[in-house]
């Protein structure tokens, strides 16, 4: 049975943003503005637009700035999950799990940007494709060929059955993980304590045939460096969707 749009979301905003220095020396990466809006607000606006009512935002580096920024927002309802010690992606979600309800939820990186394609939004497409009975995780992947500012080797190959296959020892893969996904709480059963990467849980779900991927049909921006930020700014400036609302 296809799941409805998740009511909860986790927004991962605890990263250090080291490659974006010197910009991030005094400003957390999620609060860097691109096209007139912070990357964090772009993620939260997208979640609000599909009807997510409650978001958990984890913080670590310059977390007080993020908390102060979010105090002015009214939608979605936001709770802060501060991390004294950085817990990585998996540990951060696991810590916040009691606040995320008992059903599937979105998990979105706060330091990336995506534009929706010509049809339904990426988040709505994920919700429509997520089968809560059959899956523990559904990842949104972007074709490397359309990933703006990305110069990596890719993360996954993708078969016609929608099952992602890790790049492994291959020189390149066709798809990069966007940092946008739907996860089910049962993915975290018996998960490690403390800091760990979500990749550990993806591998577990892949082995159990409970992980699938969906290909993003819009643009995705990798804002990893000052040069990548400039490229995203220029690209978004040419797109009416990318500019801030008046």
Describe the structure in your own words.
Helices cover 24% and strands 24% of the residues. It has 6 helices and 14 strands. The radius of gyration is 17 Å and the shape is globular. It starts with 7 loop residues before the first strand and ends in a 9-residue tail after the last helix.
Question: Which features characterize this protein?
Answer:
7-stranded mixed sheet, 3-stranded mixed sheet, 246 residues, Spore Coat Polysaccharide Biosynthesis Protein SpsA, Chain A, 24% helix, alpha/beta
Question: What's the helix and strand layout?
Answer:
Elements lengths: L7 E5 L20 E2 L2 E2 H11 L4 E6 L3 H8 L6 E6 L5 H9 L8 E5 L3 E2 L7 H8 L7 E7 L3 E2 L7 E3 L5 E3 L8 E9 L14 H10 L3 E5 L4 E2 L4 H12 L9
Parallel strand pairs: 1-4, 1-6, 4-5, 8-13, 9-14
Antiparallel strand pairs: 2-3, 6-12, 7-14, 8-12, 10-11
Helix pairs in contact: 3-5
Tell me what the CATH architecture is: Alpha-Beta Complex
Reading side by side through the largest sheet, how are the strands ordered? 5-4-1-6-12-8-13
Query: What is the 3D form?
Result: globular
Q: Per CATH, what is the topology?
A: Spore Coat Polysaccharide Biosynthesis Protein SpsA, Chain A
Uncertain runs: 242-246
Would you state the CATH class? Alpha Beta
In N-to-C order, the SSE pattern is EEEHEHEHEEHEEEEEHEEH
Please report the total strand number as a whole number.
Answer: 14
The average pLDDT is: 91
Question: What's this model, at a glance?
Answer:
The protein is of the alpha/beta class and 246 residues long.
């Amino acid at each position: 049975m296809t799941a409805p749009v998740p009511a909860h979301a986790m927004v991962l905003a605890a990263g250090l943003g080291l490659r974006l220095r010197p910009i991030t020396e005094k400003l957390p990466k999620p609060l860097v503005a691109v096209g007139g809006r912070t990357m964090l607000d772009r993620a939260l606006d997208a979640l609000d637009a599909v009807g997510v009512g409650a978001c958990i935002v984890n913080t670590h580096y310059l977390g007080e700035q993020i908390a102060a920024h979010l105090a002015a927002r009214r939608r979605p309802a936001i709770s802060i999950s501060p991390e004294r010690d950085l817990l990585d992606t998996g540990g951060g979600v696991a810590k916040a799990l009691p606040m995320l309800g008992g059903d599937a939820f979105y998990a979105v990186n706060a330091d990336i940007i995506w534009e929706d394609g010509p049809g339904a939004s990426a988040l709505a497409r994920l919700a429509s494709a997520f089968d809560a009975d059959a899956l523990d995780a559904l990842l949104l992947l972007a074709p490397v060929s359309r990933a703006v500012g990305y110069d990596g080797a890719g993360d996954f190959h993708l078969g016609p059955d929608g099952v992602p296959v890790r790049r492994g020892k291959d020189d390149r893969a066709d798809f990069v993980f966007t940092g946008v996904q739907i996860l089910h709480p049962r993915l975290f059963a018996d998960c490690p304590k403390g800091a760990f990467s979500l990749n550990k849980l993806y591998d577990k779900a892949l082995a159990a045939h409970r992980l699938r991927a969906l290909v993003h049909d819009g643009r995705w921006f990798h804002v990893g460096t000052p040069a990548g930020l400039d490229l995203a700014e220029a690209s978004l400036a040419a797109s009416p969707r990318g500019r801030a609302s008046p």
